[in-house]
Structures are given as C-alpha cells and as structure tokens.
Amino acid sequence: MANNNESTPGDKRKGTVVINEDRCKGCTYCVRYCPTGALEMSVRLNHKGYTLPELAHPEKCNGCDMCGMYCPDFAIYGRRLNSREE
Amino acid sequence: MTEIKSHPVDGLLRTDRMPHIWCPGCGVGTSVNCFTRAIEKLEMDLDKLHVVSGIGCTGRVAGYINVDSFHTTHGRALAFATGLSLSRPDSKVVVYSGDGDIAAIGGNHLIHAARRNVDMTVICVNNYTYGMTGGQVTPTTPDKALASTTPFGNFEHTFNIPNLVAASGGTYVARWTVFHVRQLTRAMVSALKHPGFSFIEVLSPCPTLYMRRNKLGAAVNLMEYFKESAVIENGADTRTVALNEGKTVLGEFVNVRLPTLRESYEERMKEALGEKFVPYEGSK
User: Fold this and answer.
1) Domain limits of chain A?
2) Fewer CB within 10 Å: C terminus or N terminus of chain B?
3) Can you name the CATH fold of A15-80?
4) Looking at CA atoms only, how far is residue B181 from chain A in angstroms?
C-alpha cells in the first residue's frame, strides 16, 4: 500500500490522518465529529477485534486534528499537508 | 504499511501502557487528551508538574501521564495533594480523579481543600457512577437512574458539585463536557494558570456501566445529548447550575483571586513572629 502521509508534487490534498490501529477501540468519535466528513467506519478489524475507521474521502481532509482531539485512545491524529505557512 | 505512528501527545504519555484500560467511548481518554494539550500549550516544566489520582477508572490517569505522579488510596488524592502542594511550592499539583473518588469518598477533603484555597488544580471526571467497582450509585447519579446498588432507581438527592466547591470557597470553578474539547482545553489552561484552588467538573459518558444499565445507547448518544442540552453561561450563579433533564449548564462559573493557604500562612506568621519567621522554601 502506498504511503499516503507524505505530500508529493502536484498533490492537492490539504491534510491527512494517521491511525494507530493497535490502539483504536472503534468508538466512532472521530467519524462522527470530523468537521468535513472525511472519515468513515470501515469493515476492517484490528487484532483485538475492534472495527477501524478509515480515511474514506482523502480529498476532504484538511488535517484539522479534530479527530485527534476527540480520540479517547490516542489512536488517530490529523496533520496538515502542503501548508502555505511552511 | 510501516510509518511513524507516534501521536502528537505521546511525549506526555506512558506509551508502554497503551492501549489503556478505558472502555470504547469512555470520556476519560478524551479528557486526558485535552489535558495533555493544555500542558503542551502552557509549555510547562514537566519536572514541576505532579499528577495525583485516587482510585477508579479516572484514577488510572496518574499511571498514564508521563510526569511524577501518585496513585493514592480511595478518596485521599486531595489530602495527599495538599501536602505535596505545601512542600513543593514551586510545583503545580493536579488532582485528576472521578466523581466517586472526589465528591463521595473524598468529599470531606474536597470541601476543606476548597475552603483553605490550597494551590492545586482538581479535574473531576463525572461519569455518574462508580465505573471500576461495578456501577454503584454515586452522589451524582441522576434521579431514578439504575445502578447496581439501586436496582429500582436512584431516590437520593444529587450533588451539584460546582455549587459545593464554590460554596466551600473554591476560587476557580468550571464545568465542561468531553464533547466540548476546545473549551475544556482552554478551561484547563486557565485552571493550571490560576493560583489557588481551581476545579473543573468534566461530564463524561460511561458507556459500559452507566449507559448500558440505563438503556441510554452507545457513548455517542450521550455526546449528542451534551451537544443538544448544553447551555453556556459563564459567570452563572452556581446555585442554578444543577444538572437537570434536558439542560446542562456549562462554563466558567467562578474565577476570583484570593490568598492561597500558603500565602495566608506566611502573612499570619510574619505578623505574629516578625523577624523570627523563616518562610519554607520547599524540599530540594
């Protein structure tokens, strides 16, 4: 699978999320409180049998880290890509 | 996919203990997330920050935050923290515990720590029940709610914790929920900066023992309830902020500056002893 967390030239994405699948407990907070609706619950399970979220709409993610603020398990965070300030 | 999975706040957590013990959807994790971000925002010296917890689900926080921390006996976190705060005047002491630990078993310590205005920050995660010990009734369990010790519904009057603390003399009193993550982080920043007794009540879902027993659905249902019922009234009279069905009053209720226990002690001793009084500089 391609590493989707590094921006490449011509990449229009504003941000992305990083998911630590081992820590996730599938509470769905990140999916529900994503302001842009970029995340969705997938059908994949982690090694403990919890359903994992996924970045279903990478073009919508702006890396605002709201998922990271809500996550009770420190399992997901957003980060900005192609930021103009940098 | 092998990529760096380190979370932005991993530096403040004991990552060898992750994943933590809290249930899926438990709000304690979210409140800790806000707390770690508040510490980062303040750029605190981690050698001068101490986290004290009692027993309970929230009592595990002391074991997950990577600073000097202490896991006390049930309800005695405030008593231990009072001593720590007095003996380490240059440090910030944070008590992080649950409603059962702080308001029920440690209720006496709470009112006296607030009365004496001990320089500490108390974060009380109110999930309406004793989570770790099996869902017993607490002083904050709502009317008619089921608990393992009230199988026919709770019939006791409940505590309005912000009012209790404000009436006892707390100089910073706020209440937020784990739905209001940004506001909660800001309140934690103000509470950590506040000299004196600062208290934040954090309302949080307990999906396993409270919500399932009361057929309230998943944790997100209570989060939605917090979102819909929230009424933000900064500076509200704490007598009016009791938790009623359909209305959750949130905000910063009290923020006044009064002499802390240490300041009053030193002032009194200087008056009484004059030159003979040597202020305690703290244990090194």
Assistant:
1) 15-80
2) C
3) Alpha-Beta Plaits (3.30.70)
4) 7
* Residue-wise pLDDT tens digits, A4-39: 566 666 677 888 999 999 999 999 999 999 999 999
ipTM above 0.90 for this complex? no
What are the tens digits of pLDDT across the range B11-20? 899 988 888 9
Q: Cα separation of B150 and B269, whole Å?
A: 50
Over residues B253-282, the mean pLDDT reads: 91
pTM comes to: 0.91
Bridge-based pairing state of the strands A51-55 and A39-45: antiparallel
Look at the alpha carbons of B57, B63, B66, B70 in this order and tell me if their dihedral is positive or negative: positive
A71 contact B CB<8A? yes
Domains and CATH numbers, chain B: 10-259 (3.40.50.970)
Choose from B2, B4, B7 for mutation: most chain A CBs within 10 A.
Answer: B7
Q: Does B16 touch chain A (CB under 8 A)?
A: no
Contact A18 B219 (CB under 8 A): no
